Model the fold of this input.
Amino acid sequence: MDNQLTKPEILIQRIALIVVAIVLAILVGVLAVRIVKHSDPYVKEVLSLVGDWKQGNAIFQINCAGCHGWQANGRVGPSLHGVSKHKSPYGLIHQVVSGETPPMPKFQPSAQEMADLLSYLEKL
Done:
C-alpha cells in the first residue's frame, strides 16, 4: 500500500501551501510594521506639515554638514544625494532621531524642523 505522504503530488501541494503561508506571514508582518510606524504621533505630525527646503538647508548646515559635508557629498558620514529615493520619509525620520547608526548622534528636531529637513533631503 502506498504511503500518501510520499506521493509527489501531495508533497508538491504541501510545499506550495507552506510557501503561501510564509509569503502571507511576511505580508502581514510588513503591514503591521507600516501601521505601527504611521501611528507614531511625531511621525504623523511631521508628515502632516509642509516643509521649507531653504529652512531645511539651514538646519542641515548647522547640525549635519560637519559630517555629511556642506553640499551633503559626504565626509565622515555618507553622501546624502538621492537618499530620499532609497529611504522612505519614515526611514529618514527614524535615522535622524534614533541615533542608532554610530557615529551619527541622536538629533531631536521639532516636527516643523524635521519637515523642513525632509524637504531639503528630497531636493538632493
About this structure: Residues 16 and 27 are 17 Å apart (CA to CA). Residues 7-39 form one domain. The chain has two domains: 7-39, 41-123.
